[in-house]
Amino acid sequence: MGGMYMDDGRVVVNFEQMEYTLSVLGKCTDDYMYIWDMKRDYYAISKRAVKAFKLSKARFYNTGEVLKSVVYPEDLPRLEADLAAIKERGQRTHNMEYRWLDTNGVPVWISCRGEVVLDEEGEVHYLVGRISEIGKKNKIDKITSLYNENILKQYYQELVEKQDIYGYMMVIGIDNFKEINEKYGYDFGNKILANMADIIKGKAINGESVYRMEGDCVVILDYKNVQSGKAKELYKRIRSAIDESIEENGYKMFHTISAGAVYFDSREKEYDKLMEQVNFALHSAKLQGKNTFVLYNQKEYESYIRRLDIQECLRRAIENDFKGFELYYQPIMDVEMNTIHGAEALIRWNSEKYGFMSPVEFIPLLEESSLIIPLGRWILETALKQCQIWQGQVSDFRMNINLSFVQLQKSNMLADAEECIRRIGIDVNNVVFEVTESGEIETNQATQNVLKGFRDRSISLAIDDFGTGYSNLRYIKEKMFDLIKIDRIFIQNIMQNEYDYILVKHVTELAHSMNLMVCYEGVETEEELESVKRLRPDYIQGYYYGKPMNAAAFTKRFFQSGI
Ligand code: C2E
Ligand code: MG
Ligand code: MG
Q1: Residues 250-264: tens digit of each pLDDT
Q2: Cα of 425 to ligand 2 centre, how many Å?
């Protein structure tokens, strides 16, 4: 084989020497070195290329044909035009970005550069150069050395278009990463992230690929020989490896990880949808107390999406002048006098989309989004105005208004209440705020302060649903409330269950001994009424006297036709 000639006609080396030099150079770089003898149509490329691209050999004749199978078809005409310029029109360099297919047939962007070497006659003899994967250069995350999400997205979409696959996507996140960063600084946070990525790379060695997501998350994609259970098993292996590394580091980098996973097949073409699902599974893992693995569940996701949608409808309704909301009122009777004592204001919502919905369903959504604060103000104002109207009929008519712990915690409830009472001009003795114990009163100092503020200003408070949840006899002893409302569950059981009977009897006596008032909730029948009356409650509220109804119905029933 003859020597090689550069542009200036200088002899350099022969093909074998050149090929040898390139193979040595190839070991020093991630690039693929190549030499193409255009006269013999013989092509040699770094052997690693066979593992990365759709090439069966690293040395071959008939280059044009082989290129046809490795080059992404759409890019082929562009490449052929460039090669024609070299062969026929004296172009001396090759510099192109286009796509080669990887071993799975998925296109990968490459940069291909080459120099032409002429023979003694000045004819094109060799093209020598290198190919590099563009993605590798600017699509790798600096902290973890993993491909970033863009690559995953591109890869996934091209993969499902081309092949029938079954696999899973698993997202792994560091628990409390924000706190870790805040407490120990970003460098430390980055170290933990890099350490997790290394461990995952070390465990994901059976054909899984790993990518860095935003924040503290890493995603694993696996579609090779996947059976169910594989994701969880990998998560467990990663978790124990992380635990070991924490131990080895003397617990300096203590943290836990959570994971969410979803299994898919090629029918799921939308990457974004899959990502939403896998992120929801991770979100569920965090809600379940972290340090755990959760598999995506379609039903739970749908109900989550429904909740979000209801929240959005609630927000719009509130913005739209409280459209669809209405206050209902349920009578509260004075047992001894057998007259109406007042009413409890109960919110109702008739949504355009979801129709009539129970407050038991939508109040938690309002609380979660803090929308209960603006709606609570509206309820307060509407109920107090209504109270004032009914006071024209029964001069000391009282209005009971429910307060959510979110209102107590996050809004200036006390000032709002005082301002509204004053503005409407209602006597403070005719308003009662009902608070349901949810553990908050017990643990939250701010909430306790607000309640104390109500008491200091002689605004009445009732403890609602007493006997359920966290209700505490201490509330009676310390006189934190003026009125104890005993929950319907106990009242309705009184006739059958002796324990409930005794409990209600004693709570009533205890409250009375402390000069507190007692109201029984949920009396529905005459029979129930007769049996509870013996326990001497001050007030009774229940369907027996009236279901919650709107203001017009309430007026008609209690003030126009007598009771
Ligand atoms: P709650 O404050 O304990 O209200 C009493 C609930 O018991 C009302 O349900 C009422 O309709 C129901 N009830 C009363 N008597 C009977 C009876 O004899 N039999 C039966 N089966 N039920 C009876 P509602 O209106 O569905 O409200 C449920 C809960 O939603 C309320 O329980 C309260 O915690 C919350 N809520 C309602 N309106 C508001 C509001 O304006 N603000 C806040 N923060 N919460 C509210
Ligand atoms: Mg209530
Ligand atoms: Mg209640």
Answers
A1: 888 889 999 999 999
A2: 23
Looking at all shown ligands, the one closest to residue 461's CA atom is 2
Return d(Cα 57, Cα 66) in angstroms, integer: 10
Q: What is the pLDDT of residue 561?
A: 66
Q: Return the pLDDT at 137.
A: 63
What is the per-residue pLDDT across 308-336, written as a single tens digit (0 to 9) for each?
Answer: 999 999 999 999 999 999 999 999 999 99
Atom 13 (ligand 1) nearest CA: 522
With 0.85 as the threshold, say if the pTM is over it: no
Name the one residue in this structure whose structure tokens are 């047992």: 335
Reported as a pLDDT band with limits 50, 70 and 90, residue 216 is: very high
Question: Helix 149-162 and helix 271-287: axis angle, to 10°?
Answer: 120
Return the CA Rg of the chain. 37
State the DSSP H helix or E strand holding residue 156, giving kind and residue range, or none if neither: helix 149-162
Please check whether residue 499 is in contact with residue 467, taking contact to mean a CB–CB distance below 8 angstroms: no
User: Ligand 1: residues whose CB is within 6 Å?
Assistant: 330, 345-347, 358-360, 363, 379, 402-404, 434, 436, 464-465, 488, 521-524, 541-543, 548
| Rounded CA separation 481/461 (Å) | 5
Q: Please choose, from the candidates 324, 301, 307, 302, the residue with its C-alpha nearest in 3D space to the C-alpha of residue 365.
A: 307
Q: What does the DSSP assignment read for 513-528? A: HTT-EEEEE---SHHH
- Reading the block at residue 521, the tokens are 């909730």
Mutate to test the pocket of ligand 1, among 384, 386, 402, 490 (most ligand atoms within 8 A of CB): 402
Phi and psi at residue 540, to the nearest 5° = -135, 140
pLDDT tens for 91-110 read 999 999 898 998 877 778 89
Lowest mean pLDDT among 113-122, 464-473, 535-544: 464-473
Closest-CA residue to 523 (of 546, 547, 542, 545): 542
Residues 6+ away with beta carbon under 8 Å from 93: 113, 114, 115, 116
Phi, psi of 341 (to 5 degrees): -95, -35
The CA 489 to ligand 3 mean position distance, Å, reads: 10
Supply the mean pLDDT for the chain: 91
Q: Is residue 118 classed as helix, strand or coil in its secondary structure?
A: strand
Report the C-alpha gap between 72 and 372 in whole angstroms: 57
